[in-house]
Specification:
Largest sheet: none
Number of domains: 4
Radius of gyration: 23 Å
Number of strands: 0
Number of helices: 20
Strand content: under 5%
Helix content: over 70%
Oligomer: single chain
Distance between the termini: 30 Å
Shape: globular
């Protein structure tokens, strides 16, 4: 949790930020190392809070330092192969493949996805064990026909369902925003998906002011995203847009032939597809007793808070929960099952504390004037 720094004056806080910036520049330190350094020197702070302060305050204090710090931070993008849990999964996947399991079966056994396991075996394993990687390559060729269908479904740059930002209506922009917020698609990934610059995408999406806060937090959350999470988000966004494009094409053809039954059928499929991102499941829980909620409904509430970067109190109000403890129970239940969600909700809590501390700091400074 973020430390409350309202006890610091504005000048003292500036000094702390510059101290952290100089440490990163002098030592080419990561955010975690900088947070540890600051904490060891009397300014207890998390790596998320360090990133927030540097991104939002340092530019105003010293542009030159800001550019140097951001360059170093980008060099420290997470290298998942160094993570013990990832190594363990790669080794487990390798063992199962050599026992003649297919990638699909391995993914099911390891509670993972086809794409993650495929990347484990083809991209991560060679960095761990080149000899086993050669065996795996041979075995994958043996399984080629079984796996071909899934591999062909992987995003292909030539087949990207791109959209022209300049021609998009507000409703389509809103749909893109909801897709990005739902699947936690970074602006970097949106740039790839929409074949547009990050700057142009931000300008277009931020034109819908109601979504500015959740988009701002999405940018903070995903700027140094783990490579596995980054890839999963990209694939989810790609598949959503590809299916959308396919359904709209089918609808256009049906309208040309004036096939009313086909038109109605496709329109229902489009509505069903949109339900993946439109929060209808979450809103359907309003007023329901927590003991009657399904697992899907609980997950929808938990993810709603992350999606829109809201406080627990705000979510409790929206879904008519009398106590924040209800939201805590729902989040704890999902976090116990999903380590990625657990990490992301911890980041959000840290961010909410940072925002609260800023309000307190501003209030204290205003009273002193």
């Amino acid at each position: 949790m973020a430390q409350n720094y309202s006890y610091l004056s504005e000048e003292e806080l500036k000094e702390k930020i510059l101290m952290i910036a100089d440490y990163i520049i002098d030592n080419k330190a990561s955010l975690r190392e900088a947070a540890q350094y600051a904490s060891d020197n009397g300014f207890k702070i998390s790596h998320v809070s360090v990133h927030y302060l540097l991104q939002n305050k340092l530019m105003e204090l010293d542009k030159n330092r800001y550019e140097k710090v951001m360059a170093i931070i980008n060099e420290h993008l997470p290298k998942s192969i160094e993570d013990d849990e990832v190594k363990s999964r790669v080794n487990a996947a390798t063992s199962l493949l050599l026992q003649d399991f297919t990638i699909e079966e391995i993914a099911e056994n390891l509670n993972s996805t086809f794409d993650i396991i495929y990347d484990d075996l083809t991209n991560r394993l060679p960095k761990l064990d080149s000899k086993k990687a050669d065996l795996v390559k041979s075995r994958l060729e043996h399984h080629r026909l079984k796996n071909l269908k899934h591999i062909q479904n992987k995003p292909n740059d030539a087949e990207k369902p791109t959209l022209d930002l300049n021609k998009l209506s507000k409703n389509v922009l809103k749909e893109i925003i909801l897709m990005a917020l739902t699947y936690r698609v970074s602006f970097k990934n949106l740039s790839k998906l929409l074949n547009a610059s990050i700057e142009d995408i931000k300008e277009s999406l931020y034109s819908l002011e109601d979504f500015n806060d959740p988009l701002y937090y999405l940018d903070i959350e995903t700027i140094n995203e783990d490579e596995i999470n980054e890839r999963v988000a990209y694939i989810n966004g790609y598949n959503y847009l590809k299916t959308r494009k396919k359904l709209l094409s089918q609808l256009s053809k049906a309208k040309k032939t004036n096939n009313k039954d086909e038109i109605a059928k496709i329109q229902n499929l489009i509505a069903e597809h949109h339900h993946l991102i439109d929060d209808s499941v979450a809103y359907g829980t309003v007023g329901k007793n927590i003991n009657t909620l399904t697992e899907k409904e609980k997950e929808a509430i938990a993810r709603y808070r992350l999606k829109y970067a809201l406080s627990k109190r705000k979510v409790s109000t929206i879904f008519q929960r009398k106590k924040e403890i209800t939201i805590n129970l729902i989040e704890d239940e999902l976090a116990a099952k999903n380590p990625i969600y657990k990490e992301k909700i911890e980041r959000l809590n840290d961010y909410m504390n940072m925002r609260r501390n800023e309000y307190i700091q501003d209030f204290v400074n205003n009273k002193k004037r």
